[in-house]
Design brief:
The protein is α/β, with parallel strands linked by helices and 410 residues long. The protein is 42% helix and 15% strand. It has one domain: TIM Barrel (Alpha-Beta Barrel). It has an eight-stranded parallel β-sheet with strand order 10-9-8-5-4-13-12-11. A three-stranded antiparallel β-sheet has the order 1-2-3. Helix 1 (2-15) packs across helix 11, helix 3 (60-71) packs parallel to helix 4 (99-115) and helix 10 (315-334) runs parallel beside helix 11. The chain is globular and about 75 Å long. It starts with a helix and ends with a helix.
Length: 410
């Protein structure tokens, strides 16, 4: 079965019509493509990039993070492109933006491009950190709109993708440094466990963004919990009822790829490390299969990690968790499957102690984890090179057959 998937991918790569060299990430079937070749997103989360870059004197931290990341083969960063109300706000009132903060985001995009890192930019938070949907509801109620709860946010939302970068002069919607937009970080609507409220919101917002920006991929920001469309899989929800539906939400045509998050140390707190790893393995592999067979779209494991603050923590536990995710991604990718990459939470550099949350990876301090990350990057790069070679061989064979046909005709 895996060999058939690999063969299909090679044939797709051979026949595709892709703009050469435009630098935008595309999807074809269950794969990401960059300039016609398979692309695997081995990367990291760094929510803090814009926040820190708002202060020009702190921008070296962004440059250092990108430099360290690329030296370990990391090519994708997921970060917040929102800060609604509060300190260093990007949007300080509805539709009104702080130019200094926007210039911080401009620097992040510009610097990512300089280091060859693609960005996934999340447009709003589900939680109160950095404002979130609660801030939008507060703004709406202060203007006289009748909203009963934070869940009413899903019928009152805006997003911005048309910023012109003050450093590069390129509008965000035209910048290939940006890999994808994310509608929301971990959308949840517990008041409607059927998932229909979020389904309607994703459908509306995805269509709106695609009407503005046809260059970039779009994903919803989901954690991966199942809903009514896959009731047989709700055992994986662990009694979480968050109002999302991994299958139905990701089947929306304007959503280009699926995402899943993985925090077994939180979701299964108090259980053994073995139990958490067993769940993680099943969770990751089940989502890969659902993306492959039902969604027929790539899947990105957009957050995963283990906290240093967990009772009895040792570094081997975190490395084993990383290896569990990485191995599942590699095995799928090697066989032409839907797993397109993973982004650990979170990358920091030295001197950022106030941002430590227990999940931080400081590459210069974590030699075993850093080595594991670099090895995974190398393995995915080898797969990419293999597909490129196979595609070139197939193209050469077709050209040879065509030339031989012409010779025979003469």
């Amino acid at each position: 079965m895996k060999h058939w998937a690999l063969l299909i991918l090679v044939l797709l790569l051979t026949h595709q019509q892709v703009e050469a060299g435009d630098g935008f990430i595309r999807t074809r079937g269950v794969h990401f493509l960059l300039n016609g070749s398979p692309y695997y997103a081995n990367g990291f989360n760094a929510y803090w990039l814009m926040y820190v870059a708002t202060d020009p004197s702190e921008r070296t931290k962004i440059s250092t993070a990108f430099k360290e990341a690329t030296s370990h083969g990391l090519t994708v960063a997921r970060t917040w492109a929102f800060s609604d109300g509060g300190y260093r706000a990007l949007q300080y009132s509805p539709g009104s933006y702080n130019e200094q903060t926007f210039q911080g985001l401009d620097f992040v995009v510009s610097e990512a491009g300089r280091y060859g890192i693609k960005l996934i930019l999340s447009l709003v938070n589900n939680y109160e950190d950095f404002g979130g949907r609660k801030q939008y509801v507060d703004w709406a109620t202060s203007q006289g709109q009748n909203l009963d709860s934070e869940d009413d946010f899903f019928t009152n939302s805006v997003s911005v993708v048309t910023r012109r970068n003050s450093i590069t002069g390129v509008e965000y919607k035209d910048d290939p440094t940006i890999m994808a937009w994310e509608l929301m970080n971990e959308p949840r609507c517990p008041s409607d466990p059927s998932g229909r409220t979020i389904q309607d919101w994703i459908t509306e917002m995805a269509s709106y963004l695609k009407s503005i920006d046809g260059n970039h991929l779009l994903e919803a920001g989901l954690e991966g919990f199942y809903g009514e469309s896959a009731s047989q899989n709700q055992e994986f929800n662990l009694n979480f009822q968050v109002g999302t539906d991994f299958i139905a939400n990701n089947q929306i045509p304007d959503i280009d790829f699926a995402t899943a998050h993985s925090y077994p140390d939180v979701w299964l707190a108090g259980t053994s490390d073995e139990r958490q790893l067993s769940f993680l393995s099943s969770w990751v592999n089940n989502h890969i299969q659902e993306a492959q067979n039902i969604l027929q779209k790539p899947i990105l494991f957009a957050e995963f990690g283990k906290s240093l603050k967990d009772p009895g923590f040792d570094m081997n536990q975190r490395d084993t968790l990383f290896d569990t995710v990485y191995s599942a991604i590699y095995l799928s990718a090697r066989g032409g499957g839907s797993a397109a990459g993973g982004l650990f939470w979170q990358l920091l550099t030295e001197g950022m102690d106030s941002f430590r949350d227990g999940y931080e990876v400081v590459l210069s301090e974590s030699s075993s984890t850093a080595s594991l990350i670099a090895q995974h990057s190398q393995r995915l790069n080898q797969i990419r090179k293999m597909y490129v070679r196979l595609r070139n061989i197939e193209i050469w064979k077709r050209a040879r057959e065509k030339n031989n046909g012409k010779d025979t005709g003469n």
